[in-house]
Amino acid sequence: MAAIALDKIDRKFGTVHAVRDVSLEIRDGEFFTLLGPSGCGKTTLMRMVAGFCELDSGSIRFGARRIDALPPHRRNTGMVFQSYAIFPNLSVAGNVAYGLRARGVASTERNERVRKALRLVHLDGYEDRWPHQLSGGQLQRVALARCLVIEPEVLLLDEPLSNLDAKLRVEMRYEIRQLQQKLGLTAIYVTHDQEEALAISERIAVMRAGRLEQVGTPWEVYNQPANPFVADFMGVTNLLPGVVVSARGGRIEVKIGEALFAARAETGAAGDKVTLLIRPESLLLLPAQHGPPPNFASFEAIVARIEYLGVLTRLDLDLGGVTVRVAVLDKAPDHAVPGGRVSVGYDPARAILFPAS
Amino acid sequence: MTMLRPQSVFPLAITALGLGLLGLFFVYPLFTVFKVSFIDAQAHITLANYAKILSKGFYQQAFINSFAIGIASTIGTTLLGVPLAYCVARLPVPGKSAVLVLIALPLVLPSFIAAYALVLLLGRSGVMTVWLQAQGIPFRSIYGMPGLVAVYMLTLYPYVVLPTLAAFKAVDASMEEAGQNLGASRWRVFWTVVLPIVAPSVMSGALLVLIESLENFGVAFVLAEDRPILSIEVYRLFAGEVGSNPASAGVLGVSLILCTTSVLLLQRRYLSKRRFATSTRAAPPIHKVGSALNLLATVFVWGTVLVALVPFFAVLVISFLEFRGPVMHGNFSVANFQDLWNRSSRPLFNTVFLASAASLVAALVGVPIGYVVTRFRSRLSHLLDMTAMMPFAVSGTVLGIGLVVAFNAGWLILTGGWLILVIAYCVRKLPFNVRASSAILHQIDPSLEEASINLGFSPVATFFRLTVPLMLGGVVGGMVLTWVTLAAELSSTVVLYSGSWSTMTTVIFQALEGTGAGIASAASAVLILTTALPLLMVYRLLRKHQLAVL
Q: What is the C-alpha radius of gyration for chain B, rounded to an integer number of angstroms?
């Protein structure tokens, strides 16, 4: 178990800049997620930690020990692969014992540790099964046990849940998190699924085109995104183009379409072109003939479209050329009908301004 | 991104070793052939040899004949193979799994024996010829162009059928459905969608046929009689009764290699285009057709498959008939086998020994090369890949001549023993071994090897501990296929064998030149059995590892 320090890591594949100047500190025992669209460099970065990908420049340390020049088989990381990579020619026990054999662990101790590891992943009694007899979820557990049994310094998980069905995915991510906490392992988790990242991580690094866009807790990257890309990647949102009308004492007014929005921001001057971010669930459809709650701002808009999604209903509102999305739990209030006018309230603290790109 | 560290020592060592061996035993011998073709008696560089040979009408005719036969065989094989592949892939032909086994057989059975069998049946005094003439049909004999083309079609059609069949099965069902949905008839969809998708596969198979029919020695030797054929004239000039003429043999050899190599390069290009047909989600359905059409398809498929195997059965039967000189009689007898055995049992042991040694070495060299070119892509490994494929385009006769010229004097003398035969066999079978092990590796997820390394075994330990056991079944299957084809190797053997190292194939070859038809048929029968039995034994292994015979 160790803290991981990545310092100024850079890598090019031909003309593709896969990882650019990435520096990260991952704490001892932390569950850290690399999140981003495919091709953003997250898998490359993890494979650098495992040793399967060379660095052009920069360094990687486990604790005080620099490891980026070590060959992969001497790094003592445990990696769970997207395809599980369970050896088809070995039994479950043979798979789990594999890393112990590499470390020359004597057979009595080996058997004992294999048994314990399998119990940890709820596969007691599966020692003599063959991989082809197991389900996807069970293979996943074998892959986990195979990593845990060698007591790695770092646990690396490369989209481990992407081959499971949706329900099992939710169960397994909880189980992985539990195991990691119980064993106090430092874990790096790679995924492109923002919901998974939010659910499982202590901190998330959002990546794009080889760069870190933002590093923070799930709450921070969701609610205080560093830029429109992070905001957009973290889920359905409103990124509304507008112009600053007035800026006074940290309160800024922005004209978007025909509506006037309020936001809290430290900088900005009248005439600036900006992008205003506000999450659909931060917008509140006000009952007919009601004003907004105290400290809330409000605007009026025409309902363009209503989509009922079960848990929530999504409304597209027209601000005169600009569409803003609102999410309400359950169904939309009766007075909200396509073509009708509604008032929407929101907390200006939830509106974030970015300079227009 | 999924590749391991290409800079580790292991793949570099394999690459160096592979390139070194190929350089010494393949490139260098061919270079000596190349060299002698440009050198005159006074050791001056000259084009005179080329001018002399290429101006002779006889050799010009050899070029014309070889290409006419090659192109006719290629077209014929394609016209036979594509409909056959379609029938097997898409029509309810009965006994498909048996068809799939039987289709591949001609590739591993010795083709010159098929040619010889046809001579026994349809030669000047062949059984069928006599019968046909008795019926008043003016059939003379199978010798010449039509016979050669027929034999090439029957022995090489799997080269077209197997890849085309795979391609037909790889056309996603939704493609055809989309075509029909947009208003095209099934016939129109076939011509405008399906056929273009499978075309690269057909083309790459057809080019292999062209190479094989250009460089083949045994079939041509049996059926050409006195018509000049390139691959034979190379041999005659080198090992001729009027004295060896390496310079002239070199001229023809170099010309032949240039032709076949350019065809091979063309074929590799087509092969690389093939990828766009392989994203199948739903296999195309088997068409429902009327019973008349289905009967037609069944007769066509089974007819072709069986006709291609008839010569081999014919030889087995004929070998038990009594021969007096070249003339066959209707009496059952084991005299041919007694003659063969009494003469010497050594050739059979030689065949078994040489094929075993060579298939072992070919696997030991070919599997690591296949591993490196598949798992560690770099410019160097690409060079290794290309070089290791080249022997396919070099006729055995020319390779044999090269080995003799290169290693009968100087610092390394190999001629006259068994080692040079093993070397020639290994070089000839290296393309298959590399391709087979690469195919086996493509079925092994590279993250398995990464997982092993991640768990603490070094790349070398991982190769021996994990990769080799995973590949073993396929490798053994591949070795048997190598063994089987080497037991029937003729073209380099006739150049390289000497004294006590004659093989079953050279026994047949000598018997064909002389009048030992009885012995030839018995030797052929023994050879067919020695190749067919191991194949049957490992058939399940080959199926499991999806090992293509190509």
A: 24
8 A C-beta contact, residue B82 and residue B202: yes
Taking an 8 Å cut-off on Cβ atoms, the answer to whether B447 and A81 are in contact is: yes
Q: Is A70 on the interface with B (CB under 8 A)?
A: no
Counting Cα atoms < 13 Å in the Cβ hemisphere of A7 gives: 12
Interface membership of A56 toward B (CB under 8 Å) = no
Look up residue A195 and give its two tokens: 């919901």
Number of Cβ within 10 Å of residue A127's Cβ equals 16
Burial degree of B82 (CB within 10 A; 0-12, 13-18, 19+): buried
How many beta carbons lie within 10 A of that of residue A316, not counting itself? Answer: 17
- Best mutation target among A55, A84, A87 (most B Cβ atoms within 10 Å) is A87
CATH for the stretch A238-355: 2.40.50.140
Residues near B263 by beta carbon (within 8 Å), at least 6 away in sequence: B207, B210, B211, B214, B393
Angle among Cα B322, B327, B331 to the nearest 5 degrees reads: 25
pLDDT digits (tens, 9 = 90+) for B86-123: 999 888 888 888 888 888 888 878 888 888 888 888 88
Amino acid at A17: H
Q: Kindly indicate whether the domain formed by A4-233 is annotated with CATH number 1.10.560.10.
A: no
CA B497, CA B509: separation in Å to the nearest integer?
A: 12
Say whether B1 and A85 touch across the interface (CB within 8 A).
no
List the A251-256 sheet strands across, edge first.
A259-264, A251-256, A238-248, A273-278, A352-355
Inform me whether the C-beta atom of residue B7 falls under 8 Å from chain A C-beta atoms.
yes
Question: Can you give the pLDDT at residue A288?
Answer: 80
Query: Which residues face B322 on adjacent strands?
Result: B329
Within an 8 Å CB–CB cutoff, is residue A246 touching chain B?
no
Q: A162 touching B, CB under 8 A?
A: no
What single DSSP character describes residue A25?
E
**pLDDT tens figures, A189-238:** 999 999 999 999 999 999 999 999 999 999 999 988 999 999 999 988 89
How many helices (H) and strands (E) would you count in chain B?
27, 2
Give the angle subtended at the CA of A120 by the CAs of A117 and A123, to the nearest 5°: 85
In Å, how far from its chain's centre is CA A178? Answer: 18
> Cα(B511)–Cα(B521) distance, rounded to whole angstroms?
9
Strand partners, B248: none
Burial of A14 by CB count in 10 Å (0-12 exposed, 13-18 middle, 19+ buried)?
A: exposed
Interface pTM, i.e. ipTM: 0.84
Is A4-233's fold the same as A238-355's?
A: no
- B260-284: pLDDT as tens digits: 888 888 877 776 665 544 445 566 7
Q: Is residue B180's pLDDT more than 80? A: no
Which ranges constitute the DSSP H helices of B319-376?
A: 335-343, 346-375
Report if pTM > 0.90: no
* Domain positions in chain A: 4-233, 238-355
**Which run of H or E residues covers position A248?**
strand A238-248
Evaluate if residue B459 carries a pLDDT over 90.
Answer: no
Sign of the alpha-carbon torsion through B473, B479, B482, B483:
negative
Query: Please, what are the domains in chain B?
Result: 1-28+334-550 (1.10.3720.10), 47-318 (1.10.3720.10)
Q: Which residues of chain B neighbour A44 with C-beta distances below 8 Å? A: 1
B443 and A CB contact within 8 Å? no
Contact state of A87 with B454 under an 8 Å Cβ cutoff? no
CB contact under 8 A, B1 and A47: yes
What is the sign, positive or negative, of the torsion defined by CA atoms of A330, A331, A332, A334? Answer: negative
Q: Do B546 and B540 touch, CB atoms closer than 8 A?
A: no
Contact state of B455 with A85 under an 8 Å Cβ cutoff? no
Q: Which residue of A has its CA nearest to B470?
A: A89
Separation between Cα atoms, residue B74 and residue B260, nearest integer Å:
13
